[in-house]
Amino acid sequence: MIHFLHPVFTILILALIIYSFMEVYNNKSYKSVWIIIVAMIVMIGFRKFVGADYPIYSRIYDYVGEEVSFSEFFNSKKEHFLGVEWLYALLGKIVYVLDAPFFVFTFIIAIISIGLKYFAFRSSVVYPALSMLLYIFPSYFTSDGGHMRQGVAMGIVLLSFSYIRKRKLPSFLFMIYLAMGFHNSAFVFVISYWLVLVPLNSFRILLLVSGSIILSPFEIYKYISLFDWLIPSEVHSGFQAYEMIDQANSGSIKLNDIVYLLYTYFLVTYNKEACEKILYYEYMRNISVLGICFYFIFRGSPIFSSRLSLYFVVFVTMAIPNIIAAVQKDALKKSLHFSMVCFVIFYYFVYASMQAPRARYNYIYDNYLW
Predict the structure, then answer these.
(1) Whole-prediction pTM value?
(2) Partners of residue 367 on adjacent β-strands
(3) pLDDT tens for residues 225-269?
(4) How many CA atoms lie within 13 A of 235 on its CB side?
(5) How many CB atoms lie within 10 A of CB 166?
(6) 3-state secondary structure of 47
(7) Each residue of 329-363: b (16+ CB within 10 Å) or e?
(8) Which of 122, 279, 295, 300 lies at a CB distance of 3.0 to 4.6 Å from 309, suitable for a disulfide?
């Protein structure tokens, strides 16, 4: 039986596919894509009891609004009693005292989370609609429409890339501080400021990824207590509703293994062309490579391999469209783009059949606007 996402999401994805064709074939970006981005914000922002973490976040919103005073946000032990990061809770408190229902808060979070991501794509990618298309699966549903705190943190991290390019360390660290105000795990991205300067070529990329695959069975993350702080306990309870697509044991080949190897193929094969044609491509490439390495090192843990690597892997959605833009041969450029569109379509049906029913993004999706 073939499964589909709710029609509103199917239409949004089809619209982004059309825009991606327009970008690649006309070699330019379109400001009107903001219409699609606004629609994406509305569909996530006004969702009604949709997303694995929705009940948890709703209870947190009510608790913080009713039980926590503004003065307590300046307590040095504020996260101990709030249970969530202080900046997320503070924003929720402000919205609550304005007597706004929870869906107003989720709408504001969606504006920040999705808006920041697309703004970052427009700033650093030749084909931003294609970046947004590649970003959708599964992050749009699991982060922006699920684990909202990390969704906002990821948006801030993407925006911080401009300060990495400009080599403005204080501004970059301030952005990381803000991101950590929404999710502690954003702390891992600090290393990117220096990582981008590491010289890499195709051989070194292959070596790093191969080494990470070899390390995978050893599950070294179990011996590093820092990761327990970066991934709070409440994540483990909500995560199960939209965990990794394939739940085979760590010794088996997973769908995500193939996806990350596909990413590696792009980064290795077209490294030289992209470096020559795209400004600061080396920066987003290095961050992407670390994300792929993190995925394989943390592969035995569905939470660590997705949550901690996500801040880095999201830069693949910037790197691949820039790779396609850098390719000189028109036929190859179009074939690479078409392969990415096919990949998204394939992922659409996999997500629709295996994850969407649990997170309610299929036909049972509901929205406060109707």
Answers:
(1) 0.91
(2) 47
(3) 555 555 544 444 443 444 444 444 444 778 888 999 999 999 999
(4) 24
(5) 11
(6) strand
(7) eeeebeebbeebbebbeebbebbbebbbeebbbbe
(8) 295
